[in-house]
Amino acid sequence: MIYCVEDERNIRELLVYTLGTTGFEAKGIHDGKELFENLEKEIPDLILLDIMLPGEDGYAILEKLKKDPSTREIPIIMVTAKEAEYDKVRGLDGGADDYITKPFGMMEFIARVKAVLRRTQKNAEDKIFYCENLSVNIDRHEVLDGKRKVELTYKEFEMLRYLMENQGIVLSRDRLLERIWGYDFDGETRTVDVHIRTLRQKLGNSGSLIETIRGVGYRIGDGK
Ligand code: CA
After folding, report:
1. Nearby residues for ligand 1 (ion, Cβ within 5 Å)
2. What is the overall mean pLDDT for the chain?
3. Which of these, 43, 63, 58, 56, lies nearest to 149 by C-alpha position?
4. pLDDT computed for residue 86 by the predictor
5. How far, in Å, is the centroid of ligand 1 from the Cα of 18?
6. Side-chain-side CA neighbours of residue 157 (13 Å)
7. Nearest-CA neighbor of 114 among 50, 19, 182, 187?
8. Facing residues of 2 across strands?
9. pLDDT for the residue 84
10. CA distance linking residue 39 with residue 61, whole number of Å
């Protein structure tokens, strides 16, 4: 899924249409508000982000996307009407993967989209961990129990990620606490137990994959 954030209807429709005829699923989005509503429902593979938008502009939206762990890995192509070098640099510094200046040809546009997807999806393939029916996609911040999407908090996700990266290895409560909450966290190891409990619940059928090692900590899978 590709989100096309563009307030000018003609351009938006043209982008969605062009992507559609090239075999991509795309959705036209009018502004930042609508974008964030859609992100609640689905994390796309790519966002095309216009800079001049009603309400928040593209730069402000880019900054928000990069700050939020659930959206910061989404590749972004900035679409700009401004030729000024300043804008390009600013967008790329802010974490955009590419930019394209209006007006652009559709061939060039599709080539850019494909290039960014190629670059970013290669990474995504490297960063998916599996354990039986459980899969954790690090880049997309996506957890699946079979086909069911599991919504996790940031800490829960980081804990699951750490367990999956160390499949078959017992992780002590202290180690988990240190890794997820940081050295300075003045909490008790019981915090880990509480988070493991909610994590197991949310994972449903896959929750039982997290094994309690009495007196030590937790482990996921047998590492085979
Ligand atoms: Ca615009």
Report:
1. 7, 50, 52
2. 88
3. 43
4. 53
5. 18
6. 17
7. 19
8. 26, 46
9. 58
10. 12
Task: Give, as one character, the DSSP assignment of residue 42.
Answer: -
CA of 93 to the centre of ligand 1 (A): 21
The label of the residue with tokens 């354990």 reads 131
Contact 109, 18 (CB under 8 A): yes
- What whole-number distance in Å separates Cα of residue 68 and Cα of residue 161? 17
Q: Which residues are 219's β-sheet partners?
A: 211
Kindly write down the DSSP assignment for every residue of 47-85, as one continuous string. EEEESS-SSS-HHHHHHHHHHSTTTTTS-EEEEES---H
Got the DSSP string for 114-174? HHHHHHHHHHHHHTEEEETTEEEETTTTEEEETTEEE---HHHHHHHHHHHHTTT--EEHH
Query: Per residue in 165-187, pLDDT tens?
Result: 888 889 998 889 888 887 666 66
The amino acid occupying position 66 is: K
Distance (angstroms) between ligand 1 centre and the Cα of 50 equals: 6
Query: 218 near 175, Cβ under 8 Å?
Result: no
- pLDDT tens per residue across span 194-219: 999 999 999 999 999 999 999 889 99
% residues pLDDT > 70 (the chain): 90
Rounded to whole angstroms, the Cα distance separating 10 from 22 reads 18
**pTM, rounded to two decimals:** 0.56
